[in-house]
Structures are given as C-alpha cells and as structure tokens.
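Worked example

This section walks through a single chain of length 255. The input is the sequence exactly as stored; nothing has been trimmed or padded.
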Amino acid sequence: MSKGSGLQPIIIIKKKGHGRHGHHGGAWKVAYADFVTAMMAFFLVMWIVGQSEEVKAGVAGYFRDPQALTEGGRGVLPGAENGTTGGGQPMGMTDLEAAKSALEQAAEQIRQALEALPEYKDLKDQVEITLTDEGLRIELREAPDDGFFDSGSAHVKPPTVAMLEVIAKQLGALPNKVAVEGHTDSRPYSAVSGTYTNWELSADRANAARRILEDSGLQVRQIEAVRGFADTRLRKADVPLDPGNRRISIIVRRG
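Given that input, the structure is written out below as tokens.
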C-alpha cells in the first residue's frame, strides 16, 4: 500500500476461546465418587463371600443388632474382643482354637448368669455345662425328687423357664448353630393310650424348651435341630431307670 493512498491499515485481532465445552462444572466429581463407592462395596461383598460361615453369621448379626456385639459381646470375627475396642484373633491362634476359646467364654458367662438366679441354688447339681468335640453342651438333668418338667408331661416348670431365659440371652449373642435334644429313661410311658410314648415325650420336651429359648433371645436362624431320642442315648446305660437319664440337652455347635 502506497503512502499516498490515505487508507488506514486494517488490523484483525483473533482471540483464542475455550470452546463451548470448555467448562463442565463439578459433575465429574460426583460420578467419580459414585464409582469409588461402588468399587468399595463390590470388594467388601467379595471379601465376605470368601469368609467362613461363622464370620458371615457374625457380620449379619452385627447389622441386625449392633449392641449385641458392642456392649459386653465379642466382635464379629472369631476370637475378637469387645466390638468397641477391637482386638481380633490373637496371633498364632487357629480357627479351631478361637472357636473353642469363644465357647469357653460363653460357658463361663452362662454359669455366672445362672448363679445370679435364686432358683439355681437348689438346681445347680442338676445342671452341667461342658465342652465336647461337637461344641458346648448344656444339660438339665432331673433328680429323683424333682425335675424340670411336670411328671410325664412336656409342661415346663417356672424355675426351668427362668433358667432357659438366661441361657437364651447368652446364646443369642453368638453366631453358632444350636440343637435341642430331649431324653427319657427306659421306664415305659404310663399313658392310657399307647400312641404316646417316650419318643413323643422326649420330642415334645425338646420343642417346649426350644420355644422358650426363641422367645427369650435365641435367634430363630440359630436353631439347627430339635430332636427327641427317648431312651436310646442313656446317660447312665448301666442304670436305665436313673432319673439323670431324663434330661434336656442344648448343644452349641463349635462352628
């Protein structure tokens, strides 16, 4: 352009913009948080799936009743201490040893709770709490002059109800399965009708005990079996008419 033309040069200024999609706000953060939460939940589910049945039952029990595992109870994992303080399974302790230790603690707690009952003073010699290969066994045995049921009946006496209620509260805090068994001596049932025998009597007594346990704190899911054995599993086989053969057995499975 010549100097004499008198025209001013045209200057074009181009600005670099961000484009209409340059700013997305914080929506991506919400989506990312949802993704991370979903992955955490997924890995937690996968961890639970790989655990033992005892651990699964403990986790389920915690979400149903957290207080049972945080106030005086044990933690979710086998061998754990109080849920508020943690602790976990002691170093070097196997699952079997942890399960045995948990049942030993439960046995001691049941003994202490029963001793607080006024009725227990006269019946303590008829109650036996022992650890066996199958787990914790609690037996209520009848005496020559007294029993836990009315004679020849499945009607539970009041002191028996009080003891079963205490036992149920302790066992309900555990994840373990429970079986209830009824036993009689070898004396034939003296009913007029021959259709009701020691088989029916032992089964009815076991069921009566089971109902009281469930009404007093034992979880329905914990009941594994209710059985009547009549006189086929005598405690004193050499004395088949011994009153100690008439008993109720509550077996808490080892796990």
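What to look for: The CA atoms of residues 140 and 151 lie 15 Å apart.
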